Amino acid sequence: MMPFDSIRRRSFLKAGAATGTVGLTGLAGCSSITGGGTPELGLAFTVPVENFGSLFAIEEIRNELTNVGSEYELSVTRNESTPDSLNAMAAGEVDLALLSTVSYASAVTQEAVPGNISMVATDFWDAHPEWYGFTIFSRSDSDITEISDLEGQNVGVNAQGTGTHAVLRKAARQEGFEYGSDAQIVELPFPTFVSALNDGRIDAGIFPALFAVAARSEGFNEVYSSQDLWDEAYPFAFTVGSNDSIDEKSDAIAAWGEDLAELVEYSYDNRSQVVSLAAEYFELPEPVVDGFFLNQNDYFRQDITIDFDRLQFAMDELVELDFLQESFDVQEYATNEFVPSN
Question: Each residue of 9-54: pLDDT tens digit?
Fold first, then answer.
């Protein structure tokens, strides 16, 4: 299986990083839908394929959906981290964005976006016992094989202040050490983790599902996963909308929510075709996409509606981990109004 080193020369890290957003190959040519008189929505995501919203960028898949192009126009962009997407939303560049637990909580409590935000859909869950959970890998020849071995080491994450950072912090505290004093976090883009491990820039790294395919193919050690930290699954990634956009474009966002439900159903019903289209569009090796998408190596995707009880648990947990000073009532900043239940 092709390692991810080759992908670094491709569309993952193309120009645009200086502004906090990264365009994908062909994005300007086919992910903006032109037409007259329809509302325009901007959607930002972080990890291709892994974030369902990224599939809206693929014309052949988008053509299977009912509303896009008629009820609303859509532009899709990729950012290196969820805080980058949040910054884009705060700047008014996007209406909808993929955020993780910490980014969502921070945005709400700090009122980072004018008018604040509301969660409108769930993307995936972490720590489900039968599905993939965020996993920390070390090199196959490394002595780092359990959480306590990470003390004193350099550990890679895409960005601090993210949900993946929370997975690192919870494990460290469970073993009685802290990042910043007893171990160090190194910020790197996910596509560089394999090479960074192999050349010694980091001693371990946290891998999302897409990139874990390469870690497994390299024979890396699985140090721990989210399932070792939490007894139950919890919602991890979500699509949020700025409240200003929700007020101004509620019909368009509802139409997008219907399309999202169709997109999920279409992906399950036509998995092989979606794998091939996504691999080609995002310039990924097809075995890599096939190695995780909608199989046992993927996250638990219960449905796109919001489970308020488990979401509240996730926010309360962030207080315990010192990502939040105090929790908040998630039902004031989340709604199932815009997506149909499965």
Answer: 222 322 222 223 322 333 332 344 444 578 999 999 988 999 999 9
CA-closest candidate to residue 166, choices 136, 211, 196: 136
| Angle, vertex CA 72, rays to CA 38 and CA 247, nearest 5 | 90
User: In whole angstroms, what is the distance from residue 105 CA to residue 112 CA?
Assistant: 10
Which stretches of 218-285 are DSSP H helices?
Answer: 243-248, 250-269, 271-281
CATH numbers and ranges of domains, the chain: 40-127+233-332 (3.40.190.10), 135-228 (3.40.190.10)
Classified as helix, coil or strand, 52 is helix
- For the residues of 58-85, what is the DSSP string, one character each? -HHHHTTSSSBTTTBEEEEEE-SSHHHH
Q: Which of 274, 195, 263 is nearest to 12 (CA)?
A: 195
- pTM (two decimals): 0.86
The neighbour count for residue 155, using CB atoms within 10 Å, is 22
| pLDDT tens by residue, 258-310 | 999 999 999 999 999 999 999 999 999 999 999 999 999 999 987 899 999 99
